[in-house]
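Worked problem 6 (solution included).
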Amino acid sequence: MKYISEAIGTFLLVAVVVGSGIMGENLSFDNKAVALLGNTIATASILYVIIKMFGVISGAHFNPVVSLVFYLRDEINLKDFLIYCLIQVLFGVFAVFTIHYIFEINIFQISSNIRGEIPLLVSEVIATLGLILTILFLRKNDESSVAIGVALFITAGYWFTSSTSFANPAVTIARMYTDTFTGISPVSAPYFISGQLIGSIFAFLLFKYFDK
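Solution. The predicted structure is:
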């Protein structure tokens, strides 16, 4: 049941990220600010919903670096960590293909959107650090507020980080397969994923310092 929850949640997350990006681009007459605003609202909304839906079943990770931190904290075992990561990547990519189909565009695409290198890596370190700390501190201090906290942090992250706060390797990999508003070129993806891994480890260590 927890694996199915991770599959559905990740599918919905990526579907909303990519689908709202396409819709925003179609309706905004190439106004990127308006498209990003629509993308932000939709992403934050679905994050709140899926965390509330599946939090008590799977932990509502939908993100390999969240699963990594929970594994490092001995809250999930190695088998669950590996299966969660596999499911998150596979269903993220499946969501992209599904969204392409329902918008009647080419199903298989590779993004040409080169987003940057080292400055974007640093941006993703900050974004992922903030996301993981939001999850860990709210679980400790006010567990019922995790869903709204994550949704609000990502809302802010879309606008205060130069990377628009991907903060999720599975979502990053999936977005390589869409040459639309939310896509990321395979050239840029390693910088994003590296930043996400570094940020998650920093967050794990920082929270460990506070949680003595």
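Discussion: The radius of gyration is 16 Å.
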